[in-house]
């Protein structure tokens, strides 16, 4: 579904972050992507989504090489990227608008989109939150609403960047249950392998700009 080949990347004026990274994510893959703070996990997700572009190497999504902004436009609705910080993800005034944004953007009719919202809010354990204003939510609630927004999109792949951050024990258990029932491909980026040990079936490590093990 997604393959990156020989990826090299550095931020303007900065040191090399990725230096020849190769990775393949197949249908049904459940991958733990581990690495220390600053290893480049978020950067890799951003390159897969076309939010950054590699200095060298290839990003292939759903069978097609993607190099230009236009080529990434049909990739984004098919990949649910959970940002590390929920504040970066939520941008509508209310929960209903935010969670419905993805399905509406994909062309769903309003009634169908609102049905997806109800379903997703049930899954994250926050039914009845539709009319809450985003800025009144707690950090953990924001994270769960961001997850609901991804579920409502029904993407082919979930890329979750430190998904446990901001979640308490109950929130983490809800997320583990959601992911246990998730049938699409899944990549969890984390610097704490132990948290999702039971959730993933394959583990790789990002170190010195490349994938190991
Ligand atoms: N926009 C940016 N401009 C300059 N440098 C950046 C930018 N974003 C990230 N970096 C740097 O690139 C490196 C990789 O960062 P990245 O966020 O990809 O790592 P990470 O593995 O996700 O880390 P963490 O576990 O702390 O979230 C870090 O050294 C970081 O400081």
From TrEMBL:
Residues 2-212 form the ABC transporter domain. The keyword Signal does not apply. The keyword Membrane does not apply. GO terms for cellular component: ATP-binding cassette (ABC) transporter complex. SMART domains: AAA (SM00382). Transmembrane segments: none annotated. Keywords: ATP-binding, Hydrolase, Nucleotide-binding, Transport. Its EC number is 3.6.3.-. CDD domains: ABC_cobalt_CbiO_domain1. GO terms for molecular function: ATP binding; ATP hydrolysis activity; ATPase-coupled transmembrane transporter activity. Belongs to the ABC transporter superfamily. PANTHER family: ENERGY-COUPLING FACTOR TRANSPORTER ATP-BINDING PROTEIN ECFA1, HEAVY METAL TRANSPORTER. This is Cobalt import ATP-binding protein CbiO. It comes from Kiritimatiella glycovorans.
């Amino acid at each position: 579904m997604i393959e990156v080949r020989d990826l090299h990347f550095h931020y303007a004026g900065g040191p090399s972050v990725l230096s020849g990274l190769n990775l393949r994510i197949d249908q049904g893959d459940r991958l733990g992507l581990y690495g220390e703070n600053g290893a480049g996990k978020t950067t890799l997700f951003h390159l897969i989504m076309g939010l950054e572009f590699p200095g060298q190497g290839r990003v292939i999504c759903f069978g097609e090489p993607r190099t230009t902004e236009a080529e990434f436009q049909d990739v984004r609705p098919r990949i649910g990227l959970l940002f590390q910080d929920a504040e970066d993800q939520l941008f509508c005034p209310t929960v209903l608008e935010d969670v419905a944004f993805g399905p509406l953007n994909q062309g769903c009719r309003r009634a169908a989109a609102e049905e997806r919202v109800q379903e997703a809010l049930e899954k994250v354990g926050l039914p009845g939150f539709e009319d809450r204003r985003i800025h009144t939510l707690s950090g953990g609630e924001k994270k769960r609403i961001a997850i609901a927004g991804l579920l409502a999109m029904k993407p082919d792949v979930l890329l979750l960047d430190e998904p446990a951050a901001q979640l308490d024990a109950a929130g983490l258990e809800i997320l583990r249950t959601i992911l246990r029932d998730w049938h699409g491909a899944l990549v969890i980026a984390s610097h704490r392998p132990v948290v999702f040990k039971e959730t993933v079936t394959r583990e790789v490590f990002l170190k010195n700009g490349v994938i190991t093990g």
